[in-house]
């Protein structure tokens, strides 16, 4: 098996798994005033795919001996992993009792 085909297969499977798990996470994300979280997240995913396509076109010019699809799958995998990290970061809620005076960290 060629080295490029192995990379394409590995990153294709990784990006597919990350995409499916992102869609599952986006079902539970709260939305805006009218639109659901899945719709807003879907718009974000479409935007990321377009940005990755543009970035891949630029990188493909610089890396002429690499396949366009391999570079695209690598950029998509990195982008989807970044969104997973962003969604995973929890928001902390600090509850302060009435009458408390002092510093909160």
Question: How is this structure best described in words?
Answer:
This protein has a domain of 50 residues. The chain starts with a helix and ends in a 17-residue tail after the last helix. It has 3 helices and no strands. The chain is elongated. It is mainly α and 105 residues long.
Concise account of the structure shown:
The chain is mainly α and 105 residues long.
Key attributes of the depicted protein:
3 helices, 105 residues, 0% strand, mainly alpha, 70% helix, elongated
Largest sheet composition:
none
What coarse outline follows from CA principal-axis ratios? elongated
- Over the alpha carbons, how many angstroms does the gyration radius reach? 19 Å
The share of residues in helices is: 55-70%
Let me know the number of strands: 0
Distance between the termini: 55 Å
Give the H and E element order: HHH
Based on secondary structure, the structural category is: mainly alpha
Percent range for β-strand residues: under 5%
Overall mean pLDDT: 85
Low-confidence stretches are none
Count of helix runs: 3
Topology:
Blueprint (H helix, E strand, L loop, with lengths): L2 H26 L8 H26 L5 H21 L17
């Amino acid at each position: 098996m060629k080295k490029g085909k192995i990379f394409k297969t590995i990153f294709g499977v990784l990006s597919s798994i990350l995409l499916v798990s992102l869609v599952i996470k986006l079902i539970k994300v709260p939305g805006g005033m009218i639109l659901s979280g899945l719709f807003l997240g879907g718009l974000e995913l479409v935007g990321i795919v377009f940005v990755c396509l543009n970035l891949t076109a630029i990188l493909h010019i610089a890396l002429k001996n690499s396949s366009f699809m391999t570079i695209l799958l690598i950029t998509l995998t990195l982008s989807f992993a970044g969104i997973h990290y962003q969604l995973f970061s929890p928001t902390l809620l600090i509850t302060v009792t009435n009458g408390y005076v002092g510093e909160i960290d």
